[in-house]
Design a protein that fits this description.
Number of strands: 10
Largest sheet: 8 strands, mixed
Helix content: 25-40%
Order of helices and strands: EEEHEHHEHEHEEHHEHEH
Length: 285
């Protein structure tokens, strides 16, 4: 793989305001092979929980797909907790919601359709595809269910449930209005406020990932590592039980990140299998 064969340009989009009045932004990059003949299918990559566009394999994957002929968009959700460094905006992480992430995707989609993203002439706006890892997989399924512009969805170890936490966490949240989840890698206690669950309660039907997946008539491929966490494997099984029509690829020995770590230390056999399966599924495959 050549690291210099793609062009990469950054973008920043306004993404509304917090209740406090603070302005929100979506920061991302576009990657594409320069001077490629004809417009390129768009691949919009959604990161997951406790993740960001520069985490581990995302830059590597984005470059790989761009080299194969895609107009690749990577970005940070506006309240994912990362501005310039590794989780330096925990106060925004605390108030992130599924609704906020759906709004962020809407902002990106509209910017794409209005030619407001970098290298816009290279993008085929009639061929838009979503790719999501972990929580980003569930987010992509929900968004695709409401947006006919999306032509296919690809998930890697995607969540089947929007309720991410156990009863102890929820009890703490109910009692104090805030609870904390540990980031083992950074040693941070990452705050989550009650607005997260308020949003879920207000959108039970909309955020029912199993139901939304079953209703999708566009192509969907779920790539699942067989060594993922028990809770995520349970969600995967429920999605399969609710919808058997879409494609599934199981990666033997694949954990939640297919063996990749942050900082990225190189690819793995499981990661390469996931990439190859993805390329075969997507329109240029």
């Amino acid at each position: 793989m050549s690291e210099t064969s793609t062009t990469q340009e950054a973008f920043t989009l306004e993404a509304g305001y917090l209740d406090s009045g603070e302005k929100l932004f979506i920061r991302g990059e576009v990657r594409v092979v320069p001077d490629r003949p004809g417009p390129c299918p768009v691949l919009l990559i959604c990161h997951g929980f406790k993740s960001f566009k520069e985490w581990g394999f995302f830059p590597y994957i984005a470059t790989r797909f761009a080299e194969q002929g895609y107009y690749v968009i990577t970005f940070n959700f506006s309240c994912n907790g990362v501005n310039e460094t590794d989780f330096d905006e925990l106060e925004r992480f605390a108030v992130n919601t599924f609704s906020r992430e759906q709004q962020d995707l809407e902002v990106i989609l509209q910017a794409l359709l209005a030619n407001k993203l970098p290298l816009a002439d290279a993008a085929d706006k009639e061929s838009i595809h979503l790719w999501g890892h972990s929580k980003g997989g569930g987010t992509a399924i929900i968004f695709a269910a409401e947006h006919p512009q999306v032509k296919s969805v690809l998930t890697w170890n995607g969540i089947g449930f929007t309720d991410l936490f156990d009863d102890t966490f929820k009890k703490q949240l109910e009692e104090y209005g805030i609870a904390y989840v540990a980031n083992v890698r950074t040693k941070q206690e990452m705050p989550i406020k009650a607005v997260f669950y308020e949003d879920l309660m207000d959108n039970k039907e909309r955020f029912d990932i199993v139901k939304q997946l079953a209703g999708l008539t566009i192509p969907v491929q779920q790539i699942q590592g067989d060594q993922d966490s028990p809770r995520l494997m349970e969600g995967f099984q429920q999605m399969r039980a609710g919808d058997a029509k879409h494609s599934v690829v199981t990666i033997a020995g694949g954990n939640h990140t297919f063996g990749a770590v942050h900082p990225f230390k190189g690819t793995t056999p499981q990661l390469e299998q996931a990439i190859q399966a993805s390329l075969q599924f997507l329109p240029l495959g």
